[in-house]
Amino acid sequence: MKRYVSNNDETARMFQNDFLEFFSHVHPSVPSIIFLPVVGYMFYTTIMTGVGLEYALPLLVLGLFVWSFTEYVLHRFVFHFVPKSGWGKKIHFMFHGIHHDYPSDSTRLVMPPIVSIPLAIFFYILFMNILGVHYLPPFFAGFILGYLTYDLSHYAFHHFNLHGKVGLYLKQQHLRHHYMDPDNNFGVSSPLWDFVFGTVAKKRQQESVTAER
Question: Quick one: which of 135, 139, 201 has its CA closest to 173?
């Protein structure tokens, strides 16, 4: 797999066109602005359809769990798949390569709406066909909450000093993925599936990545 080279520059241009370039930058509040109302509507629909707590709570937790697996699969097999064609490489760079080349660019740390909204629609339709309209709302609320946790924690790992044991550990694991071993540590909000599939980066004796970086 291609090894990414970190760059000292804070930002990079994705498009030569200024109009397109403007819309390639995303403020970290955008995912919450778009998707928290979706979560609220899912909770409202859960109540209105009469789904009991004994079903709603497990479905909510299941949605979070399924998101963690989805996050791992997308990061490992989609974002880190490097096509051979020239146009494929350009698309890959726009989706994820630019983040590895410029990890300190604060406007490229959360998923842009042009990607997150179609994905949300795709998963909504997929899960509706699996669960049905009655049980979908609490599950999808958990799934979207998992996505928001991923996006916001990703931003925090790159731009905040974290002191709690869990946050510090997750940040160290993610920075290790960026600066030492991009072929491992694909989980961002959770390391669960890295342990399951054996993609946890091994610590090195002279490791210099710290949470303060």
Answer: 201
